[in-house]
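Complex record, three chains
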Amino acid sequence: MLGLGDMASSPDAAAELWKQKHGEDVFEDWFTRCEEYEPSAMGYGVTLLDGTLTRLRFRKTSDHPQGYQAEWRVANRNFPLPESLQLQPAIERVMKYFSKPHQVIELDADAQAWQLSYQGALNVQSHILRERGDVELGARLGAAPWHCGVLAGLLAVFELFVGVHPTDMTLKVSRHHLQRAFQILKLVHKLKDIALGEAGSDPEAVRGGYAREALGARSCAVSFPRFANFTQVEAGMSQASGAEAAAGQNEEDMIISVCQCFNIPLSWAKLQFGARVVWIGWSFNLRSHSFHLPYEKLEKLGTMLSTLLKGEFTTRHELEIVAGYLQWVFQMHKLLKPWLSCLYDDMRRPVATSYSVEPSQRIEFISCISDDLLIQRQLPGAALPLGGRLLSVKHQALRSKADLRRVGISPKRIWLRITNPASSKRRLSHQSKVFLRYWQQWAQMPFFSRPLAMPPRWLPDAFAADACASGNKIGIGGFIKMGDAPAVWFSEVFSLRSLQKLISDLPSVAQEAITCWETLAQMGLVLLLASCFPGGRLKICVPSWCDNTGAESTSNKLFCTSLPLAFFAQKLSLLSWHTGISLDVHHVAGFENTIADHLSRWMEGEELPSGFSLDDRFRLSWEMLWHFKPDVRIWPESHGLLWQPQSFAFS
DNA sequence: CTGAAAAGGAACTAGTGCTT
DNA sequence: AAGCACTAGTTCCTTTTCAG
């Protein structure tokens, strides 16, 4: 055995090498617990004398005195052909059928009509060409019906040859044979043109137009009518008749043949034919022009999230994996990315642990703390984590080093809460849990399918939203104006105190979070738009006249990590995902903004801008804005429902 | 984190020229 | 004609790199 070296000369030698490399015990241990192959059916990698890599495995056998047989990995391409592919029976089938001379291959009634139609069309074309003086092409088309008929007959014989056609039935040429023959002839003539004609000398023609045209002649004819009535295709596909399936197969064969002819590289591992293909990780349906996340990925997401949500603590690494995966999943709607901000926050917030120092070490301890409350030096006797952040001392939260003075002195040990940046332990915040639970539910829901192409953009004449904040009150207002119809508008006032109970990290003065309220106003506008176009999965681009640069950047990129704005950006993006309305905020000052500004400051009973009426007011509740609770009401109120409607809201 | 593409390498095949 | 050595090319597979 060339190049294999001594160890391949016998199983004993191979086993010897294995023992030398991995030790006698390991070998015996592996060998005793092995089932059929050791270490596995795949074997293990071995480098031969000449540096060649191969694989070696041991097979348990009682034939050999050692009890095992060494097997090398060698490619075996000498496998038996299945019965259906044997040449001998195929030839016999044809010979038997044509054993008697003068066998006639007939066209069935359908095929005869088709052949006549081909003849007619081709003869007309031939005549026109001859009149124009193109005798050569005219002659080709003149002979084409004959070629087509002969080739169709041969295709029928080929079916007999490969065993598709029953031997005890007379051969009949069907219209499918004719159609295939026609397409093949067309392809062959195109190929001939490329190979011999002017096109052959032009490499671009081979790579581009001609080859595509030759292909398109077949594939377009088949795929276009199918696409036109794609809604019926789903049911029809599974019941496709044998002939249609054969035509589809034929089409695929042709595409492959042409690619091979022109050395167009094909990745066989990724080659897929059909209306549904999985590509770049997504499942595409080219008939309904939609895409969705493949089932395996949905399942992976579901499992991933339920494991994460099961326990109280998690690890930084686990969070990174989940966030990374969601980053990928959110390709489907980039506005969803702000959702991830809370996960990243959790990632960089290690869990705090308690430490204690002796009261006598108090002064020394203070010198270990930097101005921004980081442990910058080791304190003898206390294993304080270097680089950790001091959160509180004696249960008193600290904001700066100066706050340490407020902590009273007592003879007892001083207890500290410090976060350790080296720790990988993490706890999910409330926001993250809500966020992850949403996606966990989403992963368990039936397939969503999203269109590949968005519906055309639609723009109302004018619309805007604005917010104002003064003291404890927050006002939002906005409107849509379409043609001559009266403007639809909203105007609501919320108190900061009531919002502080629901959203953490809000400042004590409403004016400081004006960007948040601007974003909230945009959410109101999206809801208003969605209410005007209920049920429609519209793609509406909203050039909003917004006079705050903070909200502008937020709504455009919809990604930020600073609190509390991140909460609002999250909600806005989810609302956009829900309603299918995407926001595109431009910084354009204009009169619309003065109206929106007016509406945001409007109080019940005050005068409305001209063209606005109380009847067209759209009421927005906090439930609708923040929890996306649908505004479904029963009217008149005395009526009841016979079933309990399923409620849907995020909290 | 993802998938695609590029790169790299092993195994194999076909063809060629030479010798026996 | 058969066998051998060599080369060029193909196929299959894995690893690395790249881009989003």
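Note: Residues 135-161 of chain A form the longest helix (27 residues).
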